[in-house]
UniProtKB/TrEMBL annotation, chain A:
Pfam families given in the database record: BPD_transp_2 (PF02653)
Name of the featured protein: Amino acid/amide ABC transporter membrane protein 1, HAAT family
Keywords assigned by UniProt, alphabetized: Amino-acid transport, Cell membrane, Membrane, Transmembrane, Transmembrane helix, Transport
Membrane topology classification: Multi-pass membrane protein
Organism name: Anaerocolumna aminovalerica
Taxonomy of the source species: Bacteria, Bacillati, Bacillota, Clostridia, Lachnospirales
From TrEMBL, chain B:
Organism: Anaerocolumna aminovalerica
Sequence intervals crossing the membrane: 16-33, 39-59, 66-85, 91-113, 120-138, 166-183, 217-241, 253-279, 291-314
Key words of the record: Cell membrane, Membrane, Transmembrane, Transmembrane helix
Annotated protein name in UniProt: Amino acid/amide ABC transporter membrane protein 2, HAAT family
Subcellular location: Cell membrane
Entry membrane topology: Multi-pass membrane protein
GO cellular component terms, A-Z: plasma membrane
Major localization class: membrane
PANTHER family the UniProt entry points to: HIGH-AFFINITY BRANCHED-CHAIN AMINO ACID TRANSPORT PROTEIN BRAE, HIGH-AFFINITY BRANCHED-CHAIN AMINO ACID TRANSPORT SYSTEM PERMEASE
């Protein structure tokens, strides 16, 4: 029982962690806040189900195609919408309004395209369950966990080992200095938004078989991922992961042992308490004023 | 100082314009009041104006962002309905109690919130809004869950029973106008200037002897009071409430209206809620496409006027003033 709960908590926690990393990337790169991450996850899940179920592509190709499309979508949003708005002299809060309307557009265009019912993602693996430590777990759950870990490791390698990743971090630290050194700052910003939405889309595809795919699936996940990112220290990658896993555990164990009706109520209540006690998050990340 | 003095002719001109505007608005209103449905829209406009003004005091003037105002809206609506149905308290009193209860929650939320900035604050308010929403949907004994509360009694004031939307409109409009005037008076008082100082630079404000925490908490409470009152109005106007109307989207709707109209401006909330309420109602006809069109509309408006409607109005005004060769004050 406990092992199954722990696996479930790790699974949902890695979902929150990956989406939370996206918030952090966007914030680090451009100092802005996007409220559309949860709906990026939803949109990615719909794209994945389209490629896998209706176009009959192999799962891995469906996943990669979704990631490419989501990357371009994120890039498009940054390059075409956000930058243009900032050039026009909009205040930062209006960027938030922009992302709110983007999330509404994503939700409603998905509803119009795919309908408002819950779509069942067909099984990815042949076997119905896998034995781990004596308990049987659906392999799709392990897939979520595996993809989450792969994404985190790959992103870390990308940001620390590749030239472009290092220039992205440089641009995040000091735009002016970075552009003086010949780094294409607008490109790194666009890439950061692109990667953020790509990550959300990818995790959306693998989470689809677990929860089913529906229009509002992203809303709650997006908010809890945001909660994880903030509690971990906004803009800190490890913070986002640890915060996400923390909320995964909290939610799973509260609904298993206390009450499932009030699980989100308690989750958010504890979030508020954590914020009062630790206003800067676990990793003491400084907040830009 | 020379520029600030207006010639007598100008004052008359400005007054003429104001009177003309009022007459036009009154004529349109009177025409709309002939039908039940148009007057319902007018009522919504007034309610939204009150709620958005509450948000404006908090966000526009004090710089405290909130994505959870639907929580206060819900508290106002549910408290007033439950009190009037279960305890049989007269509606006027239950409305006032509801607004006060909402204000109390504002206090409670503001005490941790006044320490937080930016993302932390937005997260806290999102968490608060969600907590209220979840509480309403799962506590079936009190709130009847997702089936909602039916048959909320009408308002009864000094023996006059509010039955039609028209009669409600006159009350709501009066309150909305009072709220708008009150906000203007408040902002130009010592209290309002302190709020703006807190928004511009909390450290400098503290250095000048302003009790930053006190003003942040007061702004939160005042904001919650107004939004809660709007919620109570909504409940008694419609006669039916369910948690669906008070989820995160509603908070975003308030925020959108405020940003659309323009933050920290005297008529921003009025303009924003008027235009967006009418747009929403007009788009009801498109059923499935309604929200999509709504979102696209907001995006288009954002690109055409990046700082809200009142930003454009201020721009035009300063352009006219420049053409006349006057000094223009930078926009606050």
């Amino acid at each position: 029982m406990v092992i199954r709960l722990i696996i479930g908590a790790l699974m949902i926690g890695s979902v929150y962690g990956v989406v939370g990393i996206g918030y952090g990337l966007i914030y680090k790169a451009s100092g802005l806040m996007s409220l559309a991450q949860g709906d990026m996850l939803m949109f990615g899940a719909f794209l994945g189900i389209t490629f896998y179920k209706y176009l009959q592509l192999p799962f891995i190709i469906a996943l990669l195609l979704t990631m490419i499309i989501m990357f371009m979508l994120g890039m498009f949003i940054e390059r075409v919408m956000v930058t243009k708005l900032i050039e026009k002299g909009a205040q930062t809060v209006y960027i938030i309004l922009c992302t709110i309307s983007i999330s509404m557009i994503l939700q409603n265009s998905s509803m119009l395209t795919w309908g408002s019912n819950v779509l069942q993602f067909p099984a990815i693996f042949n076997s119905a369950s896998v034995k781990i430590f004596g308990v049987s777990v659906a392999p799709e759950n392990l897939l979520v966990l595996g993809v989450g870990i792969i994404i985190m490791v790959a992103l870390q390698l990308f940001l620390t080992k590749t030239k472009f990743g290092i220039s992205m971090r440089a641009a995040a630290q000091d735009e002016v200095a970075a552009s003086a050194l010949g780094i294409n700052v607008p490109l790194t910003k666009g890439t950061a938004w692109g990667i953020a939405s790509m990550l959300a889309g990818a995790i959306g595809v693998v989470v689809g078989p677990v929860f089913g795919v529906y229009m509002s699936m992203g809303a709650m996940i997006g908010q809890k991922a945001f909660a994880g990112a903030v509690v971990g220290g906004y803009g800190n990658m490890f913070g986002a992961i640890i915060g996400g896993v923390f909320f995964g555990f909290l939610e799973t164990f509260v609904s298993a042992y206390l009450t499932s009706n009030y699980k989100d109520f308690i989750t958010f209540g504890i979030l508020i308490i954590v914020m009062i006690l630790m206003p800067k998050g676990i990793f003491n990340e400084e907040v830009m004023e | 100082m020379e520029q600030n003095k207006k010639s007598a002719g100008q004052i008359i001109n400005e007054k003429k314009f104001l009177i003309l505007e009022i007459i036009i608005v009154a004529l349109i209103t009177a025409y709309m009041l002939r039908g039940t449905y148009p007057s319902l829209i007018l009522c919504f406009i007034c309610i939204n104006t009150i709620a958005v003004t509450g948000l404006d005091i908090l966000f526009g003037y004090t710089g405290q962002v909130s994505f959870g105002h639907a929580g206060f809206y819900a508290i106002g609506a549910y408290t007033s309905s439950i009190l009037s149905i279960k305890l049989g308290i007269p509606v006027v009193i239950s409305m006032i109690i509801a607004a006060l209860v909402s204000m109390f929650f504002g206090f409670v939320i503001a005490i941790p919130a006044s320490k937080l900035v930016k993302h932390f604050l937005s997260l806290l308010t999102i968490a608060f809004g969600n907590m209220v929403y979840i509480f309403l949907s799962v506590t079936k004994d009190l709130t009847n869950g997702f089936s909602g509360i039916l048959n909320i009694p009408n308002l009864n004031l000094f023996g006059f029973r509010f039955k039609s939307n028209q009669s409600y409109f006159f009350l709501f409009a009066a309150v909305a106008i009072l709220v708008l005037i009150g906000k203007k008076r408040l902002i130009h008082s010592r209290f309002g200037r302190a709020l703006i100082a807190v928004r511009e630079n909390p450290h400098a404000a503290a250095g000048m002897g302003i009790n930053v925490k006190y003003y942040k908490v007061m702004a939160f409470a005042l904001s919650a009071l107004l939004t809660g009152l709007a919620g109570a109005f909504y409940a008694h106007l419609i006669g039916f409430i369910s948690p669906d109307g008070f989820n995160n989207n509603q908070s975003n709707v308030f925020m959108t209206m405020l940003l659309f109209g323009g933050i920290a401006s005297s008529f921003g909330p009025l303009i924003g809620s008027t235009i967006l309420t009418i747009v929403t109602e007009v788009m009801q006809g498109f059923v499935r496409y309604q929200m999509l069109l709504y979102a696209i509309f907001i995006l288009l408006v954002l690109f055409c006027m990046p700082n809200g409607v009142s930003g454009v109005i201020a721009n035009i005004k300063s352009r006219i003033a420049k053409r006349k060769g006057k000094k223009v004050e930078p926009r606050a």
